[in-house]
């Protein structure tokens, strides 16, 4: 599937902000399931944009603005050719040893409730790894309702689980917390998702998880949609949790209150539907 | 369980009769203690307190409202080490810190010790203090731990053990310096009767160490600063004290900024490039763009400048893993693996509760053991079995069962005692020792002695100041 992305992140500041630094994890890399045909990052202000690689193997752009600005738009445009690999992620940049992805983080700390949930949903997690993960994948959206609003970027898995509500970020965190509790190396993925309900305009990127399955390697699990990842997913960055893979982290001096608006268009490839997407949850999945 | 009488720094093995001979190093001191009228001691002790209070007030100039909290009890009877004892410790400390640095360089680089099975992979990679950002570049001179505070305890004439390797931002060196200064003022006569090795050169040694670690891009006269979390940090007085002694700027996050991967300090004459940052701030707060995004104590872009080799952070990022008490338990193997030598300083035997057999042993013997959190410090969250009530042991057992991985256990060591002034007169109290080891590009420097901490409560083995511990001057006799 050929997917086109136009992604604007628009910041406005009450007063002019100085010393702007933006850390952008907005550039996908190739793996067996995706080929990046073209990709561009354009900040609206004058400054320096330098690309590096972080410890996870993500491409990171550092943008530093030369002058004070009262608004900044980061525009990402690109096109990716994707292939259905049944959720299996091969040929990706791997920089870290597998046990690293068992580490708890504040955002993915398994509360006693999440621990109990993980064990109940999987009969103690003793079965075959892939089926355990599919049990979790089914169980998370049954327990946590997709609902934008109550949670924010700093909401923990425990808090979202307790509220029983969340967006894709929260549902991924809960999936990760539960899987790691079962001693399965798991990581957070941020990226884009091409909806198949005809809605191309979205308000946020997407997020899911990858877990390690013996014999298969890393497999994508999209808890918000209750599916394995498909050719509708563009994988951009990975981390232990949202913080490590966050599309944008920034700092500035002054500027007062900040306004943030995201305009995202993900379109293309409607003619080639993936088989594994037949769960009918996509319409409420964006987060 | 009653502990056997401990080795006493002054009188030696516990079974000697009271009033008998003392160890050679304490001869003169004992005579002085015996001859000096008690009123004299009382006067001196209140003078000491006044001096410390005055120092406290000096510190309060920077805005502290709770100088009383800063006043850690000081005991005027020094703890004495002989030259041969110190030489032994010094050799052991150098070996230990060398091994720590090789270990850190390895786990962020070639990972040979993990491949060789010296330490389990998950103990390293799952550790919160293992900073994966450090895998992508080399730190200057491959040195990570530049300033270490190695806690040492003694149980016998020749029995010294390392209790903890403090390799993040160890504190307490200001007490070492202040204690000596106060002793010199109050008891000049004692110093004329002993050849006590000086400690006053510590700031010079620290500055030389920091300068030796400056990046190659730095000028011949590198700019060093001390980065503090600010006046609300419990060790702030030490930060300002050290900056003053070092003759470097004491800075907070707002005084620094980065531009094009270089760190600058704001000064009245404009921005000035910074080469070495002696940071007394935990990794998690250093750079909000890389670590905790809510940190207002750090400098955005600092890690980038660091990774580019444009600034040295001291200690390096990611040293906290060698503070971990589960990692500690592998130190004998780590020392052997990296130095090819037998460890000079021994570890306290340690049960890892993450291992099934050890765990059940620990659960069965809680009343005899000291149990610690692997990530804990400051004497919090630990159980001293022999001193705990049945209820405390039960409660702790529950925590332990809930998360065995988070704990280690050690036998209750009979720490050596040292005569100490208490309400009833002079009595033995348990002590430990924290020497400060400085690892520079040129050499390892250790000022003779360190900080002796003393548990003021009778029988107590917890020397941490947060738990009612005091301090003593520590003497290394030159002859």
Question: Per DSSP, what share of the residues of chain B sits in E-state strands of 2 or more residues?
Answer: 15-25%
Number of strands of chain A: 16
Number of alpha- plus pi-helical segments of chain A: 5
**Which fold name fills CATH's third level, the topology of one domain in chain B?**
Dna Ligase, domain 1
Based on helices, strands and strand pairing, what is the structural class of chain A? alpha+beta
Give the H and E element order of chain A. EEEEEEHHEHEHEEEEEEHEE
CATH class of chain A: Alpha Beta
GO molecular function (chain A): peptidase activity
Pfam family, one (chain A): Transglut_core
Keywords (chain A): Hydrolase, Protease
Organism (chain A): Methylobacterium brachythecii
Describe this structure in words.
- The complex is a heterodimer of chains A (287) and B (479).
- Chain A is of the alpha+beta class.
- Chain A has one domain: Roll (C8orf32 fold).
- Chain A has 5 helices and 16 strands.
- In chain A, strands 1, 2, 3, 4, 5, 10, 15 and 16 form an 8-stranded antiparallel β-sheet that branches. In chain A, strands 6, 9, 11, 12, 13 and 14 form a 6-stranded antiparallel β-sheet that branches. Chain A has a two-stranded parallel ribbon with strand order 7-8.
- In chain A, a hairpin with a 5-residue loop joins strand 3 and strand 4.
- In chain A, helix 2 crosses helix 4 (168-181).
- The longest helix of chain A is centred in the middle third of the chain and has 15 residues, at 129-143.
- The relative contact order of chain A is 0.23.
- Chain B has 479 residues and is of the alpha+beta class.
- Chain B has helices spanning 27-35, 38-60, 67-70, 83-107, 112-115, 121-125, 173-186, 188-193, 202-212, 236-246, 302-307, 325-328, 331-339, 356-364, 390-402; strands at 74-81, 147-156, 159-166, 224-227, 249-251, 256-259, 262-265, 272-273, 276-279, 312-314, 346-347, 351-352, 369-373, 383-384, 407-411, 417-422, 425-434, 436-439, 444-446, 451-455, 469-476.
- Chain B has a domain at 354-411: 2-Layer Sandwich (Dna Ligase, domain 1).
- In chain B, strand 18 and strand 19 (444-446) form a beta hairpin.
- The longest helix of chain B is centred in the N-terminal third of the chain and has 25 residues, at 83-107.
- The radius of gyration of chain B is 23 Å and the shape is globular.
